[in-house]
């Protein structure tokens, strides 16, 4: 049973526009959320995180929004650049649980020139 | 600052064999986690080590075991290899719980 769901396997966005990647979760014990970016033949690279006590966190072109009541988070990338083409994973920590991250299946973001 | 390094990069084994994968954590990190990533899936948590002790475990059988050494490097051992163990094995280190984990580039394990 997938506790972290990324329902869009792929997303195509024009260069310069906003990319919005979505993530839903079912476990109400998750209290810390992270986004990772992965290029082929490389490990995931940490992008940005958010604690469950916040609803927004911003770092340069990347902003993560958290809606706890809807159990939904999203990653906004503005403006999108060619180097942003990669697979993006949403991940979560469970408060008081095992200290591993629970990941979604990923969304392949393709930035079109 | 040295990042997380894993060895070997690729490995081919046959069913029933045993394998050891190695990981050096990022400088200053004392916590190491291991993940299995099958094709088309997100990484799945295997276990985590902190101060040389297992600190949490995912839904993996006991034939998956590990070690952490005083310098915070770590090993993942898998016994009695099965075809389904074919995957990318990722190591990640962090400064503790609730902190971002930083990943190595993984070991690609193929079971024939």
Radius of gyration of chain B, whole Å: 13 Å
Which stretches of chain B are poorly predicted, pLDDT < 50 over at least 5 residues?
Answer: none
Q: Could you spell the SSE succession of chain B in H and E letters?
A: EEEEEEEEEEE
Number of strands of chain A: 11
Work out the strand percent of chain A. over 45%
Mean pLDDT level of chain A? 95
Spans of chain A of at least 5 consecutive residues whose pLDDT stays below 50 are none
Largest sheet of chain A: 6 strands, mixed
Question: How do the helices and strands line up, and which of them pair or pack?
Answer:
The complex is a heterodimer of chains A (113) and B (112).
Chain A: E1 4-5, E2 10-14, E3 19-25, E4 30-38, E5 45-51, E6 56-59, E7 62-67, E8 72-77, E9 86-94, E10 102-103, E11 107-112
Parallel strand pairs in A: 2-11
Antiparallel strand pairs in A: 1-3, 3-8, 4-5, 4-9, 6-7, 7-8, 9-10, 9-11
Chain B: E1 5-7, E2 10-13, E3 19-24, E4 31-37, E5 44-50, E6 53-57, E7 64-68, E8 74-78, E9 87-94, E10 102-103, E11 107-111
Parallel strand pairs in B: 2-11
Antiparallel strand pairs in B: 1-3, 3-8, 4-5, 4-9, 5-6, 7-8, 9-10, 9-11
What do you see in this structure?
- The complex is a heterodimer of chains A (113) and B (112).
- Chain A has 113 residues and is mainly beta.
- Chain A is built from no helices and 11 strands.
- Chain B is built from no helices and 11 strands.
- Chain B has strands at residues 5-7, 10-13, 19-24, 31-37, 44-50, 53-57, 64-68, 74-78, 87-94, 102-103, 107-111.
- In chain B, the strands form 2 sheets. In chain B, strands 2, 4, 5, 6, 9, 10 and 11 form a 7-stranded mixed beta sheet that branches. Chain B has a 4-stranded antiparallel beta sheet with strand order 1-3-8-7, with no helix packed on it.
- In chain B, β4 (31-37) and β5 form a beta hairpin.
- Chain B is globular.
- Chain B starts with a strand and ends with a strand.
- The interface between A and B is medium-sized, with 24 and 29 residues.
């Amino acid at each position: 049973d997938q506790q972290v769901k990324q329902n869009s396997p792929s997303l195509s966005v024009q260069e310069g526009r906003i990319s919005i990647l979505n993530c839903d979760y079912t476990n109400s014990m998750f209290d810390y959320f992270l986004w990772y970016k992965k290029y082929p033949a490389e490990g995931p690279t940490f992008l940005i995180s958010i604690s469950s006590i916040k609803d927004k966190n911003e770092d340069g072109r990347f902003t993560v929004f958290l809606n706890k009541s809807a159990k939904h988070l999203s990653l906004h990338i503005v403006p999108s650049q060619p180097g942003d083409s990669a697979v993006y994973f949403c991940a979560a920590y469970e408060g008081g649980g095992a200290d591993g991250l629970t990941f979604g299946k990923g969304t392949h973001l393709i930035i079109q020139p | 600052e040295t990042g997380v390094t894993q060895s070997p990069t690729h490995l081919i084994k046959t069913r029933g064999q045993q394998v050891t994968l190695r990981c050096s954590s990022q400088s200053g990190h004392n916590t190491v986690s291991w993940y299995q990533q099958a094709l088309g899936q997100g990484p799945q948590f295997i276990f985590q080590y902190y101060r040389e002790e297992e600190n949490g475990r995912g839904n993996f059988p006991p034939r998956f075991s590990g070690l952490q050494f005083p310098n915070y490097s770590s090993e993942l051992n898998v016994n009695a290899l099965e075809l389904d163990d074919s995957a990318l094995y990722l190591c990640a280190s962090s400064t503790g719980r609730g902190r971002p984990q930083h990943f190595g580039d993984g070991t690609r394990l193929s079971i024939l």
